[in-house]
Amino acid sequence: MPKSKKGGLTSGVIGKACLSEDKAIPRHRAGAGSGLGLRPSYGFEVGYSTVLLDFDYTLLDSDASSKAAFRQLMAACGFDDSAEHFLAFEVINMALWRQVEEQVLTPDEVHVSRFELLSPKIGSPLSPQEMADIYSEGMGANGELYPGALDVLDTLASQASLAMVTNGVGAIQRARVARLDLDQYFEAIVISGEVGMAKPGNEIFDITFERMGGPSKADVLMVGDSLSSDVRGGSSYGIDTCWYNPGETALSRGVLPTHTITALEDLSALVLS
Prior knowledge:
This protein is α/β, with parallel strands linked by helices. The chain contains ten helices and six strands, in the order βαααααβαβααβαββα. It folds into two domains: 50-61 and 144-272, HAD superfamily/HAD-like (Rossmann fold); 62-141, Putative phosphatase, domain 2 (DNA polymerase, domain 1, Orthogonal Bundle). It is 42% helix and 10% strand. It is globular and about 55 Å long.
């Protein structure tokens, strides 16, 4: 059963930015309104009893988190201006996370290797491991949920079972979940860095389904902003998917979500209809 909630909930339109701790594809900007996927989202009764939610760029403003963490890292390195170095970091980081989606690398390997590649480019006085540790601490300590995300979680968890399924470094994601008090909303939190498997692979969904008590695939919806990991992963596993697409970005060829929404609050009507 969904866990009980506490505290005041925020409201507003969900926003989104460009770089993810756990995503390889550049992110789109927030838009307004709502869109429809391959079948109508609101024209007939759908309803899902289990919802799998992505974390970065779906619920969490990971762009702000990453930029704040990188500024802290650059200050520790003695650099005054982090903007130029951050652009170099973005390129490296996205390329490595793409390899995580391809099952070539693990999140824990990305944790340090991105700084092994960045360090000689910027002349860092710190070791890659020291850089990784500072950045990881900053990632866990910075970044907030998008406005209205708690309202959505509160509504969904009152009627459905929720799981978080995220590609990311375990220590970073756990620190964020604890700081934002999100554990109360989820019956399972599955982090690729902890289980050694990543979206879009089937294995991370096997683990999630086991932890959720083996729900029927027909009753499960995967929700996320990434076509390459969330939508492709859910579709390959045989469950319905909902693409959160606030920027109204065009669909990639070969990746077809069951539903599309451009405002996160529209998810409640889809799930609970």
